[in-house]
Amino acid sequence: MTVMEQAPASEDTRVSLTFAKALNTALADELDADPSVVVFGEDVGPLGGVFRITDGLTARFGEDRCFDTPLAESGIMGMAVGMAMNGMRPVVEMQFDAFAYPAFEQVVSHVAKMSNRTRGKVKLPLVIRIPYAGGIGGVEHHCDSSESYYAHTPGLTVLAPATVADAYTLLREAIRFPDPVVFLEPKKLYWTKEEVDLAALRAASDQTRNAGGTTNDDAPARPAAGIGSAAVARLGSDATLIAYGPSVPTALAAAEAAAAEGRSLEVIDVRSIVPFDDETICASVRKTGRAVVISEAPGFASVASEITARIQERCFHSLAAPVLRVTGFDIPYPAPKLEHFFLPGVDRILDTVDELQWEEQ
Question: What is the largest CA-CA distance in the chain?
Fold first, then answer.
């Protein structure tokens, strides 16, 4: 467990960084550190990707290390499997979340199963980068929350960063991971900015070139994320809000609004959907006695459903009220002008918190 609080750092090492630039920097640092890393996908070369996440990588590292592919997601994924089987570390971009579905058979039948099929003799150290979720006014096939498909598939690690620091540290960690990682990037967060100590994050990441996260809890900046580790984004005592990816800023905004009304809400950033950090989530819920799970995806058979079930199985005797959810509705993703009705917002979250049986205290 880590707490998303940064200790003071010297001004000369702190920089204002966008989420997109953090990802770009992480890719560049891993390309520089490991010659087996290659980046490819649709328009990721000279254009730098639709969201410019790969901007400048082809110019810096050459067309052999960062290159464009045909518009064929199944072919992209199949090529990545072959490369990973032969000693390379491919990082592929699915241009939009729903564009990844043509590659889904490759992911489920080969990417997720290769290690098990070969009893661990053949590893697939590859990363599938997927710009996902809503909040950008995208049309159909350009905004989707597909995390449940990947989380339900044994053999995949599924990550969803929500902060600039996590965008950098989790992506570097994912590229080094020995097994396949689905890396979900919230599109609406790409141009958010944070002040981070990039030098410290880079140093911490360089020191931990494995899947174990940081080994230095006294680092001057936030520790490296750590696959399988959730984070306490905001401390509170009355109830716990649990979110990941694009829903984390919304949960924090709701907690801030609740504080103005005298209610203390703790916020947990899941970060790592698979593997899941039961310890951090359950410790918070046992402390507060109430929980609300927040996600943009439709609620039925969702990651939010799984989190809710895990809490109620593990924390039943600590709960003062049933665990509630605030999710997208069980409908196809709506038209751009209607998406604000679909996405969880501060008001929906606060209304749900009000339903946590406070009158029985």
Answer: 64
| pLDDT score at 10 | 46
Write out the two tokens for 232.
Answer: 């306490």
CB of 211 closer than 8 Å to CB of 177: yes
SS (H, E, C) the chain: CEECCCCCCCHHHEEEEEHHHHHHHHHHHHHHHCCCEEEEECCCCCCCCCCCCCCCHHHHHCCCCEEECCCCHHHHHHHHHHHHHCCCEEEEECCCHHHHHHHHHHHHHHHCCHHHHCCCCCCCCCEEEEEECCCCCCCCCCCCCCHHHHHCCCCCEEECCCCHHHHHHHHHHHHHCCCCEEEEEEHHHCCCEEEEEHHHHHHHHHHCCCCCCCCCCCCCCCCCCCCCCCEEEECCCCEEEEECCCHHHHHHHHHHHHHHCCCCEEEEECCEEECCCHHHHHHHHHHHCCEEEEEEEECCCCHHHHHHHHHHHHCHHHCCCCCEEEEECCCCCCCHHHHHHHCCCHHHHHHHHCCCCHHHC
Q: What are 285-332's pLDDT values in tens digits?
A: 999 999 999 999 999 999 999 999 999 999 999 999 999 999 999 999
Phi, psi of 62 (to 5 degrees): 95, 160
Alpha-carbon Rg for the chain in angstroms: 20
Strand 157-159 and strand 272-274: the pairing is antiparallel
Alpha carbons within 13 A on the beta-carbon side of 279: 5
What is the C-alpha to C-alpha distance for residues 249 and 267, in angstroms, rounded to an integer? 10
Q: Which residues are catalytic?
A: 142
How far from the centroid of its chain's Cα atoms is residue 84's Cα? 22
pTM: 0.91
Are the beta carbons of 90 and 83 closer than 8 angstroms?
yes
Task: Give pLDDT tens digits for 321-346.
Answer: 999 999 999 999 999 999 999 999 99
